Amino acid sequence: MRLIISAGDPSGDRLGADLLGALRKRGVSFEAAGIGGPRLRAEGLQAAASMESVAVMGFAEILGHLPAIHRARRGIAELLEARADAIFLPIDAPGLNLGLARLARRLGRSVVYYVCPQIWAWGRGRAARVREDVDLTLLLFRFEEATLARERITARWVGHPAGALVSDPGLREAARASLGVASQETLVALLPGSRRAEVRRHLAPMLDGCARFAAHAGGRVLAAVSDAGHVASAMESRDAREAWRLLRPLHWRGDAGDLLRAADLAVVASGTATLETAALGVPQVVVYRTGRVSYEIARRLVRVDMIGLANLVVGKRAAPELIQSEATGPRIAVEIAKLHTDAEARTGQLRAFAGLRDLLGGPGSAERAAEALIEFASARKAR
Question: What domains sit in the chain, N to C, each tagged with a CATH number?
Answer without folding.
Answer: 2-159+364-382 (3.40.50.2000), 164-359 (3.40.50.2000)
